[in-house]
Amino acid sequence: METMHELIPFAKEMLSQKPNRKMVKLYMLGSVLAFFGVVIGLVETVCSPFTSEGRLEEEEEKKPAPTREQMVLQKQEDLILEKSKKPVGMQRALVTRPHAS
């Protein structure tokens, strides 16, 4: 909205000074390019969810199925992670203070 408030006085000033043809052509060219930029940005924003969805499907198709060795390694990693987890109750007992506050 700020640009509109700045643009209206600028347009009035330009019209009162009666600019030459070159300046009018230059401003018209800039306005048309800005308009096309806005339209292209809107089209890109609207179409981007559809294009990214297609890319995800292509990436999933390219990935090979996991082999047995990979599955065994994954299971071992999962077991190690489960064993490394400590129960929260045991840690809580160590935090208690020996005196009342």
Descriptive account of the structure:
With 101 residues, this protein is mainly α. The chain has a domain at 18-51. The chain has helices spanning 2-17, 21-62, 68-84, 88-93. It is elongated, with a radius of gyration of 33 Å. The two termini are 59 Å apart. The mean pLDDT is 77.
Summarize the structure.
By secondary structure, the chain is an all-alpha fold.
Q: Unreliable runs, pLDDT <50, ≥5 residues?
A: none
Beta strand %: under 5%
Given the structure, what is the number of helices?
4
State the helicity in percent bands: over 70%
Structural category? mainly alpha
Order of helical and strand elements:
HHHH
How many β-strand runs? 0
Average predicted local confidence, pLDDT: 77
Radius of gyration, whole Å = 33 Å
Main β-sheet description: none
The end-to-end distance, rounded to whole angstroms, is 59 Å
Apparent shape = elongated
Topology:
Layout: H1 2-17, H2 21-62, H3 68-84, H4 88-93
Short descriptors:
mainly alpha, 0% strand, 101 residues, 4 helices
